[in-house]
Amino acid sequence: MSGLAFVGCDGAPARVRTAAASRPNPARLEGGPRRVIDVHAHCAFPDAMALMGLRYPAHEHPGLPQVLKVHEDQIPARLTAMDAQGIDMQVLSINPFWYRAEPDLARQVVRTQNEGLAEVVARHPDRFAALASVALQHPQLAAEQLEHAVRTLGLKGAMIGGSVEGRELADPAFDPFWAKAQDLGALVFIHPQGVPELAKRLSGSGGLGNVIGNPLETTIALSHLIFEGTLDRFPGLKILAAHGGGYLPSYAARSDAGIRTFPGTYATPLKKPPTAYLRDLYYDTLVFTPEALRHLAAEVGADRLMLGTDFPYPWTDRAVEHICETPGLAEAERASMLGDLAAKLLGIAVVS
């Protein structure tokens, strides 16, 4: 536990924005969920990073002071920030950095992280759950790691990248992992790693590798899972897409139109129109305006959305208010987004 570090999605220590602890929590108002759950929250284990020849922090961001220390228990500060933002529980996960590792090294990295995550959860079962790490570059090993993590360690699923060393998640080589995830009923959180092939185009001002590149990778990954038939082969998968699913929900109708307009590109027969698969997936609520959240709910269904903050990266300290203040949502839909759906999917006990 002393080696746990809370980091942003890129591995850098991040400035945590906390609101006043006395701020009313709108989720506690009439019609709210019984537990507010954040499904998108990052951490890291420096000992595991060291196995890959990496150091913590992976890199720094100018203007974001290093407020997180490696060799101290960061849990109290994390809980204080969660309380200030009205969040009861966070589902911890680790952004993949080990996809280039050979099997023996990959086993060490994954074991270190999954056992560490299980220890954190055991110490604070009312405040944390966790998604496992898996060595997806070795699909059969990843399937075994997922089963051990879920059945033995009590983790709730796995986080994976949006691609694996240039290979798409829809590659049939990954089917053993998808089959195991379906069999276990485990949630698989797809978190983008950016699009390195576009590094030159995305360089320059604006942090475009993150701002544009991350949601673009999610869009590509989900599109391949649809068009290559992965979601037909494994219809029971529970997939959570980061950052509101990237750009796909906002422009998915073009996929339907593409089949009609260019039928020669439709190489893999699908069981339904591409847009219909959007309602088989789940999405976090990390979009940035009430209209964006309203539109996401309209496109994929309000019952497919779960609160996500990308904590501790300081995108927002108003994720709860974001849901509570978005117009047009029923109270039951807000409660579902704020925690009821996550509790159901992850098998997290609710509190009265």
Could you give a quick summary of the protein structure above?
This protein has helices spanning 46-51, 75-84, 103-123, 139-151, 175-184, 208-211, 213-227, 230-233, 248-251, 253-261, 290-300, 319-325, 331-346, and strands at residues 37-42, 89-93, 128-130, 157-161, 163-164, 167-168, 187-191, 238-241, 282-284, 305-306.
Folded structure, characterized:
- The chain is an alpha/beta fold.
- It has a single domain, classed as Metal-dependent hydrolases (TIM Barrel).
- Helix content is 37%, strand content 11%.
- It contains 13 helices and 10 strands.
- The chain has a 5-stranded parallel beta sheet with strand order 4-7-8-9-10. A 3-stranded parallel beta sheet has the order 1-2-3.
- A hairpin with a 2-residue loop joins strand 5 and strand 6.
- Helix 4 packs parallel to helix 5.
- The chain is globular, with a radius of gyration of 19 Å.
- The two termini are 30 Å apart.
